[in-house]
Structures are given as structure tokens and as C-alpha cells.
Amino acid sequence: MSRSKLKKFSEIAERENVLEAGNELYGQLPGKWRDVQFENNNPLILEIGCGRGEYTVGMARLFPDKNFIGVDIKGARLWKGSTMAMAEELDNVAFLRVFVEQITEHFVPGEVDEIWITFPDPRPRDRDIKRRLTSPRFLQLYKELLKPEGKVHLKTDNQDLFDYTLEVLQQEVPVKDLLHTTDLYQSDLQEHTMGIYTTYEQRYLQEGIKIKYLQFRFS
After folding, report:
1. CA distance 167 to 136
2. Which residues, in sequence order, are CB contacts of 123 under 8 Å at separation 6+?
3. b/e map of 195-219 (b: 16 or more CB within 10 Å)?
4. Contact (CB, 8 A) for 33 and 86
5. Contact 78, 97 (CB under 8 A)
6. DSSP string, the chain
7. Rounded mean pLDDT, 125-141
8. Which domains, from first to last, does the chain contain?
9. Is the pTM of this model over 0.70?
10. Which of 35, 65, 72, 121 is catalytic?
11. Is 91 a catalytic residue?
12. Residue 62 and residue 88: Cα distance in Å, rounded?
């Protein structure tokens, strides 16, 4: 492991806006995120597989009256988002370093108001279908976390993942209020994504790749 990564790992271990194994509050916040971490009663929004946290931080800038948590297992990536949030003194941002499979261990049912999944690994091989973040098993986890009318958003550059997700939502997992487009920035749905672009998204657009987007609520 590089010295740079080791340095980042040691830094996030000491940060109040990163919760990971070994932290005092790690595993102690189910049902208490608003009271303990954010000290308010504002809506709670998760970004699943947040990577560098660009979307998490971007939303936090726009909505100081909401709380945002970026979830990822990659510590070096979370360091980036954590650093941005600290530099901008955003106290409505936190990051949770955990495998998505373990997410329900860190929230009580119905604690979350909204979920974003931004540019997840498409897991193109058939043997990895269950690891896709929009597979039925993960959708069930999100349903448990969300309030009854909570909304889920997906942004992706990958057509196959988008098609797979639509098929799951239309045939396997009961949902309502489903909206979708294969060309976000030529549709009237772009206002739902608040003009936030990740680094990878900007690169995709420069390459002429269309961004796909969908949103829904569980039935």
C-alpha cells in the first residue's frame, strides 16, 4: 500500500465527519444520526457507493437544511469528500465507510428520506448480477431504510445497467412514480439532478456518452 493511501487512512480515522470501524460512534448511530451526528431533525439523504463524495458534497452545498451521508468502502475515496466538506465547513455532511451489504446495520427502518446511486460499477458479468447496486437484494435493503414515500435516484452512463434496472423495477420489485430517460440532459428530468456533475460524468459527456437517469418510490 502506498504511503499516500496510508496517510489518508490515518487522517480519516481522526475525522468527525467519517464513521468507520474503530471510531467511537461507529455502529452506535442507528436511529440517532440526526440527534448525535448532525444535531438537528432535518431530512437524511444517502448516496450509496459515493466514491469521492462529489455528489454528496454537491447536494450539501445546495441544501444546508438537509443532512447528507456518503456511503462507500474505499477509504482513500472518502478522504476526498471528507476533505472537501471540511474545507467548506459543511456540517451537514458525513461519510460512512462500510460495505453496502451492511448498510441496514447502521440505520433503523424508515430513518432515511432519500437515496442516490450515482455511477455505480455496472458489474457487466452475469455472475456478478447480485452485486449490482440495483439488484433486487440491494433494492430490498433500500426499501427497509427509506420512509414510506422515500425516493430513489439512479444516474449512470451504462446502458446495460440502466436496462437491467428498468427490467427489475418493472418485473420484479413493485414501485410507483417511476420516471426515466436515456438522455438526461435532453429531457425535462434534468432539474431533478440539481446540476451536479461528478468528474467522471463530465468526462462521459465530453466523450459524447449520454447520461441515463431514473427515479422511483417503492410501492
Report:
1. 11
2. 129, 131, 132, 161
3. ebbbeebeebeeeeebbbbbbbbbe
4. no
5. yes
6. --HHHHHHHHHHTT-TTEE-TTSTTTT--TTTIIIIIISS---EEEEET-TT-HHHHHHHHH-TTSEEEEEES-HHHHHHHHHHHHHTT-TTEEEEES-GGGGGGSS-TT-EEEEEEES-----SGGGGGGSTTSHHHHHHHHHHEEEEEEEEEEES-HHHHHHHHHHHHHTS-EEEEEEES-GGGSTTGGGGTT---HHHHHHHHTTPPPEEEEEEE-
7. 96
8. 3-17+40-218 (3.40.50.150)
9. yes
10. 121
11. no
12. 12
Integer Cα distance of 134 and 137 in angstroms: 8
Residue tagged 439523504 (cell numbers):
45
Q: What is the pLDDT of residue 102?
A: 96
Placement of cell 470501524 in the chain = 21
- Chain position carrying cell 457507493: 49
Give the integer Cα–Cα distance in Å for 116 and 113.
Answer: 11
In whole numbers, what is the pLDDT of the chain averaged over residues?
A: 95
Q: Could you report the per-residue pLDDT of 65-86, keeping only the tens digit for each? A: 999 999 999 999 999 999 999 9
Residue found under cell 437484494: 137
Residue 59 burial (CB count, 10 A): 21
